[in-house]
Amino acid sequence: MAFVDTVELPDGTPMPRFGMGTWFLGESAAKHDDELAALRTGLDAGVTLIDTAEMYGSGAAEHLVGEAIRGYDRESLFLVSKVYPHNAGDPEIFESVEASLERLGTDYLDMYLLHWRGAVPLAETVECMEQLVGDGLIRHWGVSNFDVDDLEELFAVPDGERCAVNQVLYHLGSRGVEYAVLPWMRSVGMPLMAYCPLAQAGDLRRGLTNDPAVVEVARRHDATPLQILLAFVLRDPMAIAIPRSGKPEHVLENVHACEIELSDDDLALLSRSFPAPGYPTPLDIV
Ligand code: NDP
Q1: What CATH number has the domain bearing residue 18?
Q2: Domain limits for position 63
């Protein structure tokens, strides 16, 4: 795929399929200049989707994103942020969104996600999200770390079916969502935002990046193993990958990974080492 490819949200709005994650960014003064340059390198290359959250560095990541996007055409960007579960009700969510907008230096979010399920009833969160849409502070809302039973509960509350995305952990070494979550989402036309698409540079699954199948497929495409991990996620047209890097050269490598088209033979080889489970597994999280 080209990195500018999009997927349609349930209401028909196009959403970029490749973006930049920001967990752990903005937290270190010593890394500030590199991290800012990394985000700007992505923006200059045409990456428009940025994923952040009020949680990341207690707002430090949103601050850095705000600094990075200054001077870029806001309408061309697709900014995603997330609300803590304990802030996902009335009145906290309204304060949270205002604080995120302030840090980002913008007056609306393209997507606002419930970071994970907490004690606030889903019906209340949905009502608040819909109010934020009505007030023009967010354009869409979605959820994160929702398994099938959570999605079913969500769709049972008023306006719950207006959820636009579910952001979950998904990488070659963790394919549990392929069994039930992804098919469920596909059936309602809801894209999946894949977090940790690089398995945190392989750290989340021992042996992933030096697995012989991954190394062989990387060799075939003159790519790195991490680029193959990204190409794996992006092979699904309903998936959106949001790798994070604080280094400009890594961001460019990740952008170039979007050009890799895995063949059926590549996928078969990768699946022999890392098969999708043929049975239900609990949602993987970090
Ligand atoms: P990723 O899988 O994106 O891996 C990030 C790591 O990979 C970093 O250590 C980075 O280091 C390294 N890396 C990135 N590109 C390259 C490259 N080309 N070559 C070598 N190393 C590379 O992990 P994340 O946990 O950050 O997940 C991605 C994003 O998903 C997060 O940043 C966040 O926005 C979101 N997320 C959401 C969660 C949720 O609950 N909703 C949970 C976790 C993540 P370096 O900086 O040195 O490049």
Answers
A1: 3.20.20.100
A2: 7-203+236-256
Nearest-10 crossing angle of helices 264-273, 225-234: 110
- Tell me the CA–centroid distance for residue 207 and ligand 1, in Å: 17
d(CA 124, ligand 1 centre) in Å: 31
Query: Residues near ligand 1 with C-beta < 6 Å?
Result: 21-23, 51, 115, 144-145, 167, 195-201, 226, 242-247, 250, 253-254, 286
Token look-up 């540079």 returns: 201
Model pLDDT for residues 9-31, shown as the tens digit of each residue: 999 999 999 999 999 999 999 99
Catalytic site includes residue 170: no
Three-class SS of residue 264?
Answer: helix
Residue 208 lies in a domain: no
The answer to whether residue 30 is domain-embedded is yes
Rounded CA gap, 50 and 83, in Å?
A: 15
What is the per-residue pLDDT across 228-240, written as a single tens digit (0 to 9) for each? 999 999 999 999 9
Q: What is the pLDDT of residues 145-175, one digit of tens each?
A: 999 999 999 999 999 999 999 999 999 999 9
* This model's pTM is above 0.90: yes
Q: Give CA–CA dist 199/205, Å, rounded.
A: 7
230, part of any domain: no
The count of domains in the chain is 1
Is residue 117 in a domain?
A: yes
